[in-house]
């Protein structure tokens, strides 16, 4: 109806799920008690009615064999309570969803408060659909959101985050953040927003729609510990680490927070102080330890926090990183991410066994290469290593 390519398909059938299994015996049966089996990437769902959502998501009673209209009436919004017959092209629309879609209105099927009691996640879905599709919320729906928003606290963090992240990365994220705040939803699911709603909305909206970056900006603007989000939403480990690093380093006025510096054997990173004076060295260090994408994210985050806080122009932290980025990726310097002399080579040349000294030597060679990538040749590094070894011993 919107002229978009569907991301997935649900096929409704007037058979109970066990009859579907007789046709497709290899189908996945996860969710079969709720009338769903999966055939490849397609969910085949039995027409059904439901009662008593005991866990605010799953019904305690499921009745199969109901008419199509009865099945559609348990949906959340009228625009989601339509069905299409692929053979005849007919649209089944008993609740006026097509008309609501044409007038860009989001309306609940039946009483909004009842739909939210069944599954409070629908409250967040309403804001997400408004944000992502540019819809207007029905007045009764808004009233129900404000009355029922506390139900969201009963949901697992993973389900809440599935909707929150889609709002955060939307092109209309500014409006999405404002809506979360004005409807009182953020106080329940994302209280960081309430510390600085307008600043957070601006900061998030002016950077690229990358989830880690936008979460880092939110935490940076509101000065929130990343562990809070990690625990609340049970974030994947990799995402949590990226967000934590960005949040600690996105202060526009600093270069890098010393708490995030790599912990080496001899602390060369801190001893050289080059990370505060040489943009190219800093950029290479970030790329070496955390990757090019994280450097790009950090630049975005510093700029976004700066603008979100109401400043103009570009902050010194961003400009320093930009100079480093330019020097690294607009030069013909050879690869610095793979040190030409590895641990085995170090042990062979020094005649030592695996141990702390190998780590020290490798750290020293890394620092040599990151300060001057032209040194990243096996013969050159071998000479540097032996000279270092003579001084050390």
Strand pairing plus helix content: what structural class? mainly alpha
Supply Rg. Answer: 28 Å
- What is the residue-mean pLDDT, rounded to a whole number? 90
Name the poorly predicted regions.
Answer: none
Order of strands across the widest beta sheet? Answer: 1-3-2
Q: List how many beta strands DSSP finds.
A: 9
- CATH 2nd-level architecture of the domain at 10-76: 2-Layer Sandwich
* Number of helical stretches of at least 4 residues: 21
Helix content: 40-55%
CATH topology of the domain at 10-76: Beta Polymerase, domain 2
Counting copies of identical and different chains, the oligomeric state is: single chain
Strand-and-helix sequence, N→C? EHEEEEHEEHEHHEHHHHHHHHHHHHHHHH
Describe this structure as you would to a colleague:
The protein has 393 residues and is mainly alpha-helical. Among the domains are: 10-76, Beta Polymerase, domain 2 (2-Layer Sandwich), CATH 3.30.460.10; 343-392, no CATH class. It is 53% helix and 8% strand. The chain contains 21 helices and nine strands. It has helices spanning 17-23, 68-72, 97-102, 112-118, 121-133, 139-148, 157-168, 173-182, 186-189, 192-195, 197-205, 211-222, 226-233, 237-249, 268-272, 279-290, 292-308, 316-329, 343-350, 356-371, 378-392; strands at 10-13, 36-39, 42-46, 48-53, 59-64, 83-84, 91-92, 105-106, 136-137. The strands form four sheets. Strands 1-3-2 form a three-stranded mixed sheet, covered by helices on one side. It has a two-stranded antiparallel sheet with strand order 4-5. 36% of the residues are buried.
